[in-house]
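Retro notes, structure queue

What went well: the backlog is down to a handful. What didn't: a couple of records were mislabeled last round, so from now on we paste the full input next to the output in the thread. Example, using 28S ribosomal protein S21, mitochondrial from Magallana gigas:
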Amino acid sequence: MRHFRFVSRTVFVKNNNIEKGLQVVNRMMKDGSITAAIRKNREYMKPCEERSLVDRMRAKRIYGEGMSKKVDFLMRKSRTNPHPR
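Corresponding output:
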């Protein structure tokens, strides 16, 4: 299937409320990351730019994982106070 993301995406509009239907469609597209894929493929990206983008996203993900581990460690309640008064 060529456009698998669009399969089974049906919105039922009640009482001709088009605005509510558009809100639901926009939410479905945002949650399914369809708009991000469309935005990404809007213009051509050189292979070297694409590789550097992948590297930057990988570094950002690794940094975020490490930082979330540090925050989780600091937010634990059972650890002793390192600076007692």
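Agreed that this is the format going forward. Reviewer comment attached to the example: The radius of gyration is 22 Å.
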